[in-house]
Protein 1
Amino acid sequence: MTVLSSPGARRARRAPVGGRGRKAVLGLSGRYLTLCLMLVVMLGPIVWQFLTSLKGRGEDVYGGVLPSQPTLDNYVRVAESFPLLHYVGNTLIVAALAVTSNCVFAAMGGYALSRAGWRGRRAVFTVLVATLMFPFESVMISMFLTVRSMGLVDTLVGVWLPGAVSVLNLMIMRAAFLAVPKEVEEAAVLDGANEWQRFTKVFVPAAKGALAVVCLTSFMGAWDDFLWPLIVLTNSDHYTLQLGLKSLAGATTVNDQRLIAAGAMAALIPMMALFFALQRFFFKGVGEGALKT
Amino acid sequence: MASGTTRTKRTAHTTAPPAAEAPTTSTSGPATLTSAPSRRAARRSRTALDTDTGLVHRRWWTPYLFLLPGLVMVVLFSLWPFVNTVILSLTDAQILRGGRFVGLENYGRALDDPDFWTATVNSVVYLAVVVPCLVLLPLALAVLVQRKVPGIGFFRSAFYTPVIASAVVVGLIWQWVLRSDGLVNTVFEKLHLISGPIPFLTDSTMLLVSAMIVTIWKGLGYYMVFYLAALGNVPTSLYEAAALDGAGAVRRFLSITIPSVKPMMLLVGTLSAISALRVFTEIYILGGESGGPGGGARTLPFLIRQVGLGFAGETGYAAAVSILLFLLTLAFSLLGHRLSKGDER
């Protein structure tokens, strides 16, 4: 990305020498002031929830911003009094299935879509792009009926299956394979590699970045999804984390904002850790997603 | 975006084997096929590449085999549900029994149903408020974080944090801010700005406004990244030329930045419009399972779920509402497409 020279600095170049420094400093501090203001808007609500989760039992939840008796007790209490860890386990099962199926099948399908010379390629591509137009909310009723006819209502497999291969992931992998230079494939062909070998030994390693994006987005999708699990699951034993959070917040027996806050933070913090560790893939994913239209 | 793709392609080419090799292989392939019938050449020609069409000779069914798992899933959980929704919408099916053909009755019923109109108006108003905000505010944010001043990486990541939080977590966070005994009301009461709590979550209109705020807050960082990519492609020389001509910062923003990112604005507008029509979880978490008092803050997805599922679920009617939601989504996608087409011309 090209870095623009600051408006302040550019103006300063033409300004008389005396005003240069002051103007630049003024512009820069104005910029940081706005940045900090936005920081309060964007992180304020999250921080407020986090601080609430640290407040001690004897302390007024509204009394002051910082907890006067900071404690991790709420996290322990929410894990003990509520099957939150069980819900995390359920979510991880769905996530593991979703990540595996999306990586394997989207890579395979994307590979086929990226190779020319087979009948029906254009038709298949068109159909796939067309399915991107159906909002999930407008097909969820009959999706539920399909899952029900398979006997998968109220199972984790039923939560996972409809998202086992997303079309967007197929497109991301296709784009990545299209970017693999032809010479590499030719060399592999001449070395006598068959199609499967070319796919596993040449193309998949070349598309590692895109595969990481697919892996990450499927994991996040499984972790964050709410509406579909809400439709499929009825028994609270099978709840995923987000459903568990909702029932925690709605439980009349709980009614303690410290516990709800601890639950919400327990769901958010692993995602934040993942995000800060793998930032470049997140931003890459957003860019790839934009290519779909 | 486009230049990003070409950039990766170019770097990929430089790491590829020397380009000089490529023409030799591709011309020798077809040539040996006709002239030299040696065994090795024949084997080579069978698998050789025809660079004109990018065609690799392979067993005809190989690509289908690769695509099979993905295609089965797409047909089963995307294509078929859509076709089935169309079919169901023409029947009086219920969740526990099949239906018989009733023609367009369900659609007629929707048009007479005040709940349908409330949900439609809510969804459209939601879109009308959220889309302009999500087209303009993230652009301003992107301009703010574009310049690489020290610490900017932290700010960018911080602004993106709401995006990675789930809708439920975001809903709970804002519920704690907006509740009648929440942060905003407590602070306002302590400052004696209000006499009673503002009903952010207990009044249908206020609930919708609150949900919109949450949607906008969560979308800011997401679309900021789109704009950052677009801004990175604007040539610096344009700004320098304008600055030399004496154009101020505002003028440069209006005459250079806006026209340069206009295609991205259309894309963001289309994407945010589609997701505005899909809003469910924010309202469900903030306003509860009924969708606000008397269901007054229900959106179309909310109505579909409520009508279509449960023991008395009216699948046929819910399917008709689903199709109407689909048509609404389609209309806005086509509008976005049309606008960007007109823009290219």
Note: Residues 62-105 of chain B form one domain.
Protein 2
Amino acid sequence: MKLNINSMTRGGLLVLALLLCNFTFAQRTITGTVTDAETGEPLIGANILVVGSSTGTITDFDGAYSLNVSENAKELEFSYTGYSSQRVEIGSQTKIDVTLSAGQQLEEVVVVGYGSQKEKEITSAVTSVSAEDFNQGPITDPSQLLQGKVAGLQVYNRGGDPNGQSVIRLRGISTVGANTEPLVVVDGIIGASLDNVDPNDIENVTVLKDGSAAAIYGSRGSSGVILVTTRSGSQSKGVEFSYNGQTAASTAFNSVPVMSADEFVAAGGTDLGSETNWIDEVTRVGISNVHSLSASGGSGNTTYRISGNYRNVDGILKNSGFEQFNGRVNLSTKAFNDKVSIDFNSSFTNRNSDFGFNEALRYGVLYNPTAPVLGADAPFPFASEQYGGFFETLGLFDSFNPVSIIEQNRNQGQRTEVTYGARVGYDITPNLELAARVANQKTTVANEEYYPTTSLFRGNATSPTRKGLAQFYDEITSFQLFEGYLTYVADVGSRSNLRVTGGYSYQQNNFESKFLSLGDFPDNSLDFGNLIQTSQDLQNAGFIQANSAVSPDEKIIAFFARANMTIDDAIFLNASVRREGSTKLGADNRWGIFPALGVGVDVNRYLDINNVDLLKVRVGYGVTGALPGPNGLSQPIRQVVNGDDGSVSTELIRAANPDLKWEEKGELNLGVEFTMGRFNATLDLYDRNIQDFILERTVDVAVFGTDRRFENAGLLTTQGAELTLGYDVVRKDNMIWNTGLILSTYKTTLEEYVVPEEQRANLGAPGQNGTNMVVIREGEEIGQIWGPVYAGVGEDGAPLLEDINGDGQVIGDQGNALNPEADFTTLGNGIPDLEFGWTNQLSFGDWSVNAFFRGALGHSLVNTFRAFYEPRISSQTSYNFVNTELAEPGLTSAQFSSLYVEEADFFKLDNLTISRRFSFEKGSAIRGLTVSLTGQNLFVLTNYTGTDPEPSLVDYGSSDNGGVVDFSNPDVLSPGIDRRYSYFASRTFTLGVNLNF
Amino acid sequence: MKKLFKYSLIACLGLSMAACTDLEEDLIGDITEDIVVEGINIDGPGSGDGALTALYAELRNAGTANHGGYYSIQEITTDEMFIGAKGGDWFDGGDLIRLHQHTYTPNHPFINGTWVQTYNAIATANDNLGSGNLSEAETAQARAVRAYFYWRLLDSYGRVKLVTETNEDPPQASRQEVFEFVESELLTALGIAEVSESMDLSNSPLADGGSAYSMNRYGAMGILAKLYLNAEVYTGMPMYDKAEIAASYIIDSGQYVLCGDGCSVPNLGKRPRVDSDPETLEGYAAVFAPNNEGNPEHIFSVRYDEATGPNMNFSQMNLHYSSQFTWNFQEQPWNGYATLEEFYNSYEDGDARKENNFIVGPQLDFSGSALLDYAADDDDIQLNYTPEINELAPNSLREAGARPAKFSYKQFGRSNMDNDFPIVRLGEVYLVRAEAVARQAGNWSAAEADVNVLRARAGVAEYNGNLTEEEFLAERGREMFQETARRTDLIRFGKYNGEWWEKPSSEPFVNIFPIPQEQINAGGGLTQNPGY
């Protein structure tokens, strides 16, 4: 912590110094103006670059510039977004005025998988986001860079858990039983870990949204594809360094409203004599530091970039956070008269995490506010030593001293990842290239938990015999990838071209894990988590838990081909096919075929409408698959049963299904792209059909010998629309203002399913088992929250429920939810109707402001904290009561109803960045400096009374009494449940420095 | 090595495709075929059958003594046990109230759970029988154990599929057919054509006695006796004569004796500083104690063990959270199951079974101090289990209701208890014979001789011409409390649809549980029982 404060102070002083000083170093100076060729208006912020160097500047509010160049500079390049760029020889000129023409699209190149395409030629829904558009601030996981930036891409990291994984969805769920997260491809390496890419190293992210774009990735394309391109070196003189530093402070944005000690006692709570704000006791201001340093350059045919990134992030919950080091080397070279090209990427990440205990927040909410932190302050004699000096409310269900949880216990992990890949290309002829890619990735995880003998929470401190617990989990995952492909480019006239690619892909995935749990340690004098041989469990049968898992030779093998054709520079055709097989499926159905076709026409080329620069209509159709998660889906799985006499036998726990086949998604996408002057718009409409989705379902136990089996179980359809709008509102005088809006909406219907209707998402203990809150039905939208309608408080303190069907009797207990006579209705939907992101970029002089707003409408959340703890239950007077504005003080029993289902529409200022850019003359040691201040989560408009109104797209089930939540098995059919184990949302302020030298 | 990998792939890309398109899945981290390791034969004939280890374990897995399956639907649907909703705690979507008030539906999770657990057990038997690895004796055991599980289905659901081979899908059988199947399977295992005075079991592949953990002749005969006792309910045809013969065969064999005077075990629940805790458990109490293995009354029992035989969770299901500190339990109890006041009061004071079967009154912790409940919803902070109960829902008091303790608790107990659970024990066999004799005679005093054997052991006055049908049912209830017999008994005596505390009268169709909707949805062509 000392180091952090020091470096923060130093950073601050540096910023101050730079603000006060003004560096100028004179050499040969060139001045001039840049104007619009048609209107003659000055272009503000146009780029001027000395060709072959990184020396450059931008124009001011009058379109004027002044640039110091070295004597040997030969050429200047003038560029401006939306205008064609222009090169001018310097010669002996000292004043160079330039006019740039708008309307001619920049021939921007977009990575599309096994190659790249000009943006204009793309016939599918593809969005590309460059580094300058990424979200700012300390990002803990690269997917957050894209939050709200791509229409149709949902990135939600509920709460502010620095170790939490974002839930990523492209156009909603694409499968039920398999992986619903998009496929990640980093620098061409399929399945590369996004966690092994530092956000600072990312140049560009391209999202392949629809089936026709993703089909080239076949069986893994159904959930969309995210293509990440990391920064590479550029030709320049010497080495260029870039430093990025951030210091951030996070605080809890809000908390679950509970009673103060006084309110609690007044409401009949058990008074234990103290006053404790438990949330304050377990939260803090989380200080984070990020330092990134890169060196890049090139000479001859070789370019390189080397970077090191350090992140130290502290969460708002005490003892939660991580420290991470990442290193990356990207190298490109050419040889043999440029016929052979070699690209090499490698990346290494080591992350040490303090996962902490989210339970401290949960119990912080519901712990008695009159209870003391320490046992010594108890109002009655209390055996403090037995509980590490802390107070505990012994004999209560699901009640643990939150401070004791975080102070006494340890929950840590270390993850190491290494990824490297090489692509070798050989130009057989100028039109034909043979390329091969070899890549390797290995991820090692070692997690460890230790609960000392004095911890009531999982440490069993009440037991006189078996106290303390240590748990270890180790996991190694790795893959080897080999791909070879040929690309042929045909010359078919000046306005047309044809490119054909075909190849082979082989990937082998390996997985192994080990788990060990044992306890009963001597005392609390040492950290016996490091001395497990002291465990007395070694002398007692049945307490030690151990297991291991190893994957078989899991392989994915594919053959693929693609053809791109352009006719008359206005008609674009793309077709691809991938034939792919996986070891995971039934013996007769291992291979699947995934074709795609797309057509696009630049209509305006023929209509030539006035002032319209682009009017492109495109339509694409593609088939993709979803690779199921576990191995052995088609095979019978048995488990061992041990007898007391040393005998062993096995029983079947999952039945075989040799007919199991690929699930397939067919998707039709219609897109329109429109540009007129400063305005641009893209509209995409899509219709997707996911058939034969793979699901572990209940089968007839009498017949199959067990009731679980994987089957191709149904049909899911999604219709949606995405709109992207951009407008340069102000582009003159002394100000620039660009604004952009993305909107997306979709609806997913479960057309066919194994049963006509089904309930999911159990609320849980205490007392609310058998309370499934979500219903899914054939032919209906997914995500419906289903329950009775609250109508007031009854005489006995129980809730009154509406007689919805008007039959004179009320049946509202959740166990009767599918009873046709019961009074149930849809109380909300967990999936938003509309999601939007609104970006604003303002520049004036060296100052710029980025304001990013984000919101979602139409979704609901079940506030489970309220459902359990807001009723004033007489036997719960030793727990605190949740006390929101929706509380019904007369209610004394908890039962699920519409009372706890809240609309969670929100609009938030997600990110506000103010930055000042400093220019330096040529010859200065410093080439550029930007200082910025970023605020995240600055305000949220919502009526939701929980801590975070963001949609909850998946459910991980309930947990109670110190139980562990299984995050590895999300239920994607149960959105809309805000569970008690959520981390609290945070607000963060960040001071950032970007220095190039 | 890496180069080799690369080159070989490039080679096969251009040449033969066979090697680089091989997708055979060979699971090395999972078990896909049965494994059998024979155990060491320590307990006489029948023990050490490695091939049947998983099948006997199914007796534990099939909800025999835990929450949410067979035990729950047999117990809390009756007048001997209930679970009250404590202000939201234990409301559980109304599922528990529905069992108590007989308003269960095909979507009830416990009714589905029971079905799945029972068929899983049957599937393991089918798997073993189809393996071709079983000896004749093991085959007979497997068929008899499977017949027992089919008896549970017969009793609970009536019409079920009689699956005898893996992946076979027969049509749903009538209750009559299920009855006949259970009967014939047990007779086959016993090596006889029918139960009669002259039957000769010498050809039975089942063992003549031995460990209660293996199905022997007396276990199979006991299940048959219970089947015949309820034959009139299942088929409309009374078979009390056969029930009597089967019961007599067991009693007359002399292999088993009632655990009475002098039959005792150390009291593992004793608190050293609490003088009222006895040093030993004797007679009736010893039959159900944590250390009851090898009890002379046990004929066929489920072996539970805290380390190697999990799934008996009575301490958690029955006791209040704070009771953890009376027994130093490893895990906190859940405060769920309790006894109806009227049922508790049906025992007279001095009945050893009342003493053993319930926990009532103010509670003390391990050291003998008052046990405190920090969340008490009455004014007294000391935990005090009261036989009287204020209401079923929504605000049933946390301390209300005598707590079941027949399977008594031991100090330092784990969530998985050690007590063996008898499926056939001599005490019940006496009751079967008593009832069969009385029903044949049309005179309940004919039952007195056998019933008085149990009365004597319990230390209460014997019947002397005053035993009535109603009194017999009450007496059977007192003896068999917590042994999942009550629902079947109430149905046989025509009382299941009557009224009791917080339970209105119910329609006769509820005497058979609904076929679970999830199973009908699974697509095997099952049809629903009438009334649902």
Note: The radius of gyration of chain A is 30 Å.
